[in-house]
Amino acid sequence: MKHLFGLLTIGVVLGLAGCLNQNEHNPWMNDKEILDLIQQMTLEEKIGQMQQINGFGGEIPEHLKQDVIDGKIGSILNEVNVKTINEIQRIALEESRLGIPVIIGRDVIHGFKTVFPIPLGQAATWNPEVVKAGARVAAKEAWSSGVNWTFAPMIDISRDARWGRIAESCGEDPYLTSVMGVAMVEGFQGDDLSADGSILACAKHFAGYGAAEGGRDYNTTLIPEGELRNIYLKSFQAVEEAGAGSFMSGFNDLNGVPASGNEFLLRKVLRNEWNFEGFVVSDWASITEMITHGYVADEKNAAEKAIKAGVDMEMATTSYKTYLQELIDEGRIDEELLDEAVYRILKIKFDLGLFNNPYVKEEDQNQFALPEYLETAKEAAIQSMVLLKNEKSILPLTNEVGKVALIGPMANQKYEQLGTWIFDGDSDLSITPLEALQLELGDNKVLFAEGLSYTRSKDKAGFAQAVTAAKQADVVVMCLGEESILSGEAHCRASLDLPGAQNELIEEVAKAGKPIVLVVMAGRPLAIGAVSKHVDAVLYSFHPGTMGGPALAELLLGVSNPSGKLPVTFPKSAGQIPIYYNHKNTGRPVDKASWTCIDDIPLNTFQTSLGNTSHYLDLGFDPLYPFGFGLSYTTFEYKDLKIETPKVKLDDDVIASVTLENTGNFIGEEVVQLYVRDLVGSVTRPVKELKAFQRVQLKPGESKKITFKINTSELAFFNNEMKEVTEPGEFHLWIGGSSNADLQASFIIE
Ligand code: NOJ
Fold first, then answer.
1. For residue range 368-381, what is the model confidence (pLDDT) as tens digits?
2. What is the pTM of this model?
3. Distance between CA atoms of 530 and 572, rounded to whole angstroms?
4. Domain Fibronectin type III-like, which positions (predicted)?
5. Residue 49: CB atoms within 10 Å
């Protein structure tokens, strides 16, 4: 996707006139076929390409047919009827003047009919191959419905569990999010965008959207440029380099300028610095919402700001359609800005092969939930579940497990286990934990009681039945959490507690005195610290998708071994937010030895006697669970950390190794994580940064030397001059099984 030379800056006069082979000021606009086509287009047809309208479901209204014939529609979102789509494409190709196809977009976020774990769960696999395979399945199913373009991956860095859209994200870390985002792009787009089963990816929401104030969706984001570049833009740059063909501008205002009118983001960074050649679509109405933001007075100004900033296509609203012509006539914008946008859009349509064949053949249509797709979804779900606690190795349940009481409002909810953003998800395909356990163990061994009919319920009428089931069983599995609607877009929560009377349900069931395994199906980290003391094991499954039940059953029964790791820090309570592992040290980091809990502070304590360090008196300094954490049924020991290159020069590789041994009784997979700290920087550096990881499988008793190679360029950061630099000096390096890894060594960059 790279072009050869420097790019336009706003105000440079672009020009197609008289130059059919290459655009004078945009050398990357050099496809003769596209330039020829643009030369033939009327202004109205150009503006048409920049308009995305919402779908209509089934029958195509006459006025829309006419709009397609007139070349007034470049894209349609939310249309998934393959026959309708084929017909629209036929009209566009055969009946419109220039035969330009339409591009069909859809939110295919974590699966189409076959639903995969929510992206946050997928990130917990720390397995890009599994994530890529999931995106491939989603692409194939969506493609077979006529969809050409998904609005994914969502790669907003999310440090706030209150924010509902954390469910759609890959969590808090720029490196992990980059790896996962790239895997998704590769899965969606395949090796060849025009191949059957490939669809266009869209990196969203550009940019900073995850930093919404207070975790309230759509809220203001204030991110200093250095932080923006070091944390929030990394994943976007990674997927741009991986060839993501489109970007979506966010709803948020970033440092006072809405993302959809933000020249810094869309023109300076995305186009001029990264040389992005795909196109930018606005988020739904995010151009006209700049009026509500108080950034522009009216739609005409909104259209002007957005086109100048670099939004090529307008989603849902019609400010471009209504005002671009006028803005050109008044000399406020140059028509060449439109040519650039149209070029970008047409280029992608050519790349997708839509000009040649936009149709889905009869035999390829509606290919859903094939056995191999379901298997891929099951594997993703298995690897996405994170074992957080397993006292006395209660898990896995042995073959001789007697009766299992399966309790809780999420144990048999085909729809709710799918999570947010499943517009096309088929909940009939879902296999619930109840169904899967009954299948594995036989009906008579599974005693089912909901306890609560849904997670927010406060009606305790079902408690007695749940307690009875627990008393009759040998072990209790409780499936609790949040319904799908409690996370996702606009669905933010101020509290991270289990909703409804679920805490009380655990407390009541615990009185039966049976071992309890808590399974949490949720769209965000929940503050389960207080209740987890009543249970023996915790398996955090996020919303696991279609195959959540079988995946869970395999893990509970030891057919598979948990290997997921947290992609985000779990706070003890919402009051600790923001809390993330790659924080700064501050001048007064917490002194763990001298921290005094609020309950232990004597009366009349002298003000400074507790020390003055950065922590909460009531919640301390640690999160509930750290980033990267996750247990296995086996145990792993890390030893012999060695830096083979204790002194390196700039641009050299740092080589570090560790020996990992499986010291337990099960075959298992461990995600070996490497973190570094740059001890002194011209800008203060985080206390730890994830730089690499590897998934390693070991048999009991087996050990293996794991080696990492990191180039010093990967240790670069943006300094206060906004230059990306690796600064010489001393670095600490850790390798271990979570961000709390304690095996540490040092190296120096000379
Ligand atoms: C709004 C959401 O923010 C975005 O993520 C989504 O792709 C669009 N709506 C289209 O549905």
1. 999 999 999 999 99
2. 0.96
3. 9
4. 670-739
5. 29
